[in-house]
């Protein structure tokens, strides 16, 4: 598995991408920083936890924009279990919009920091994973890069 690149490598600037790392349960993920417009703290997730459709688990208004909540933990985790959430979940609001001009917001357990990665170091997805661009290794853990354009075509 590849590792995060520090600026001392031979990678060209065009190979560098800034990503925002976040966690779901015990897994680490990331998304392109330029796909994110904000990150919000979420206190009570009970209505999201009981929503029938994790792809449309609720909605909120942020700065005048409607945001459709997507419960990533329920999408990527076991389907027969109620998610074991962090005390303070967070919502990653994406620039991508749905057909009704609502933004997408990914409910995640914790948002970490941004990192600059080299796409040259990206390990392709191991199996047919439509939503996954690939993975990197960071601090001995796998960081899975989600493709927001595939998740929300």
From TrEMBL:
PROSITE patterns: CHEW
Any one cellular-component term (Gene Ontology): cytosol
InterPro entries the record matches: CheW (IPR039315), CheW-like_dom_sf (IPR036061), CheW-lke_dom (IPR002545)
UniProt domain CheW-like: residue ranges: 16-153
One annotated GO biological process: signal transduction
PANTHER family tied to this protein: CHEMOTAXIS PROTEIN CHEW (PTHR22617:SF23), CHEMOTAXIS SENSOR HISTIDINE KINASE-RELATED (PTHR22617)
Protein name, entry field: CheW domain-containing protein
Lineage: Archaea, Methanobacteriati, Methanobacteriota, Stenosarchaea group, Halobacteria
């Amino acid at each position: 598995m590849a590792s995060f690149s520090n600026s001392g490598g031979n990678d060209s600037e065009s190979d560098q991408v800034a990503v925002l790392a976040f966690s779901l349960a015990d897994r680490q993920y990331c998304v392109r920083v330029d796909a994110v417009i904000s990150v919000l703290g979420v206190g009570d997730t009970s209505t999201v936890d009981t929503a029938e459709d994790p792809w449309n688990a609720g909605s909120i208004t942020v700065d005048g924009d409607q945001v459709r909540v997507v419960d990533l933990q329920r999408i990527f985790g076991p389907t027969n279990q109620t998610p074991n959430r962090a005390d303070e979940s967070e919502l990653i609001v994406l620039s991508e919009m749905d057909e009704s001009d609502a933004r997408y917001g990914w409910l995640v357990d914790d948002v970490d920091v941004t990192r600059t990665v080299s796409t040259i170091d990206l390990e392709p997805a191991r199996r047919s994973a439509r939503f996954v661009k690939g993975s990197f290794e960071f601090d001995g853990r796998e960081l899975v890069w989600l493709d927001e354009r595939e998740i929300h075509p």
